Amino acid sequence: MDNFRQVVEDCGIVNIGYLEFPFTWCNNFISPHSTRARLDRALSGKDWKDCYPDSWVHHLSTNTSDHLPLHLILGTKSQILSKATRRFHFEQGWFLYNESKLVV
Fold it and tell me: What PANTHER family does this protein map onto (predicted)?
């Protein structure tokens, strides 16, 4: 992994960035034993980023993997912030809290 990081740095490759949910992986355990991490990223060179300055990554939902798919957007960030495009994601671990049963 250190060699990969060194190549990324030496080549001037940058992380494109994302909006919304910061994690791309989950061990699928219910809280408090759940672990989440940001393992997946979209990278680009400076020239590509100069051509597509408004690009960013949106995390899609999935039921078949412990990794969230990445969706590269070349448009504006306001597209995802619109309430019309927002999705609600229910977390099974919320049932561990009695207060959540009053809402759900």
Answer: BNAC02G09200D PROTEIN (PTHR33710), DUF4283 DOMAIN PROTEIN (PTHR33710:SF62)
